[in-house]
Amino acid sequence: MFKKTSTKWILAIASAMLLSGGVFAQNKPNVVILATGGTIAGAGADVTNSASYQSAKVPVDKLIIGLPELAKVANVRGEQVFQVGSESLRNDNLLTLGKRISALVKQDDVDGIVITHGTDTTEETAYFLNLVIKTEKPIVVVASMRPGTAMSADGPLNLYSAITVAGSKDARGKGTFVVLNDEIHSGRDVSKMINVRPNAFASPWGALGMVVEGKNYWFRKLDKRHTTNSEFDIDKIDTLPLVEIAYAGGNVNDTAYRAFANAGAKAIIHAGPGNGSVAATLVPVLQELRGKGLQIIRSSHVNAGGFVLRNGEQPDDKYDWIVAHDLNPQKARILATVALTATNDSKELQRIFMEY
Ligand code: GLU
Questions:
Q1: Whose CA is nearest to atom 9 of ligand 1?
Q2: Which of 243, 251, 270, 314 is most buried, judging by how many CB atoms fall within 10 Å of its CB?
Q3: Which spans in the chain are helix H?
Q4: Residues contacting ligand 1 via CB (< 6 Å)
Q5: pLDDT digits (tens, 9 = 90+) for 235-260
């Protein structure tokens, strides 16, 4: 009788442990999800609404409860930091998010961080965190292209993959990541290439690796400075300066450049065509603004990734301008914003643009 009862209890306890995520629950990594909104927290009226829906609707606790598989691979808890579409995120939001991450990664009981985010500015937040967070612990920004209510929603698998990457030891020390569509991208390189399709993200120099069924497969390393090797530290940054982007195609005028200068911008990212080219009529305007103290940073809006060469299209040494090299305009804005907290010396800024 006694034997029968104890066997029953052992079986009951074992199945409870399995259901709650496995026998070795105490060995699972601790991952914190910081939720900011986006399509991954979006909801549509119908399962056919893959493109028309409301982003930033579902709270993080609901996302976690809705995906019991997460508990099998990590001890997961969530914090709702914001609930917005990422196009509305501002510099203050980056500071709030970065400081919260910095505090969390200092805790021994936190092994990794996942940030749920809208896809529109995922590439900016991920790059910002790559520059300013002092940790080897994995920081993973995750997003989705379809809301959870749609057919073939991509959010649940993306979130599951992000949690497994954030909890893995082999992801440590590699900088921040963006995980979507089974790919692990560097937060520095990745960019949104199209605004429909689940494979919307790509890195001009290729993904760092793949994550398949919770296992990471690595292919390359980021050579640029990041996280622990970065000279920037979120704990020492309390305000971010204004940096604006002026888009230049054909028939370009000086209106935006002058308005940005009048509004107090410390730098203007010239998002030019090709090699960050500058129209002949704009050259004296940019020289004049540089003379007034603004930093002029030439970048390229070429779709697949620009590559602006110093003194290539323009004599940057002569004009004391800076080139963004391979950073697209929105990433150049992030780096300039962070770098200007440390220096306003154009040579130093150029060094930073080559090293990060
Ligand atoms: N515009 C929204 C955002 O970036 C939704 C887009 C998305 O997450 O895919 O948050």
A1: 119
A2: 270
A3: 2-19, 60-65, 70-73, 91-105, 122-132, 155-166, 255-262, 283-291, 316-319, 329-339, 346-355
A4: 37-39, 55, 85-87, 118-120, 143, 145
A5: 999 999 999 999 999 999 999 999 99
Residues 33, 154 within the same domain: yes
Structure-block tokens of residue 277: 């080219």
What's the gap in Å between 292 CA and the centre of ligand 1? Answer: 37
Q: What positions carry a catalytic annotation?
A: 39
**pTM listed for this prediction:** 0.92
Closest ligand 1 atom, residue 37 Cα: 10
CATH number of the domain bearing residue 285: 3.40.50.40
Measuring from atom 1 of ligand 1, which residue has the nearest CA? Answer: 85
Q: Which of 229, 263, 293 is the last residue of a domain?
A: 229
259 and 133 part of one domain: no
Cα–Cα distance, 225 to 18 (Å, whole number): 42
Amino acid at 36: T
Q: Looking at the predicted structure, is the pLDDT value of residue 2 above 80?
A: no
Ligand 1 mutation pick, 39, 57, 58, max ligand atoms within 8 A of CB: 39
Q: Which domain holds residue 330?
A: 241-355
Mutate-to-test residue for ligand 1 from 54, 63, 119, highest number of ligand atoms within 8 A of CB: 119
Under a CB-based contact definition with an 8 Å cutoff, are residues 181 and 154 in contact?
Answer: yes
194 and 48 fall within a common domain: yes
Task: Look at the chain and report how many structural domains it folds into.
Answer: 2
Q: How far is CA 20 from CA 26, 28, 214, 270, in A?
A: 11, 12, 18, 53
